[in-house]
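We close this part of the discussion by returning to an individual protein. Part of our work consisted of pairing the sequence of a single chain with a tokenised description of its backbone. What the numbers capture is local backbone geometry rather than side-chain detail. The amino acid sequence and the backbone structure tokens for this protein are reproduced below.
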Amino acid sequence: MWKRPGCTLTKEDFDILRRMLEEHQDHDEAMTSLLRQKLDTAQVVCKADMPDNVVTIDSRISFRLGNGMPETRIISRDRSGGPVSYFLPITTMRGLALLGLAEGQTAAISRNSSLVEILQVTAIHYQPERTERLREAEEAIHPGLRHAETSREADHVVGRGRVSFPEGDDPGPSAA
């Protein structure tokens, strides 16, 4: 029997899974089993200590199903908003299985006694915890530098926030 690997979760992600388990009790046996396994084997770390190569909620990753071609998705908390093919919610077996895995790590999920899927994390393109650490380090080096608020989607595409200028210091469009 293949033992599923442990995972690494932020405290926030761990708490979300714990609430999901309370809600899923007696609803979906496979999902409840996977939630229990994740919670029982998780190494819980604070956001600042999360390794850069681990899947967290809101990470943009590539993964492979079996020997298939890699697919890229954002691991999301639920199914709300955005195109279906862009997000992979942790409310699905695949999304939940990938949460907490490191690049190169695999997980097996069973939907029933005759179907087992093998998932492998092939790349992590964006991880919010890593981006936050980079922002904090940049602000420590350049204390006067401020970042404008950006949408999550911009962070996923660009990987960092835009620089804002103090009042009146913006060179404006003509400077481009």
Q: What stands out?
A: Confidence is low (pLDDT under 50) at residues 149-170. The beta strands are 7-10, 42-45, 60-65, 71-76, 87-89, 106-112, 115-126, 146-147, 163-164. DSSP finds five helices and nine strands in the chain.
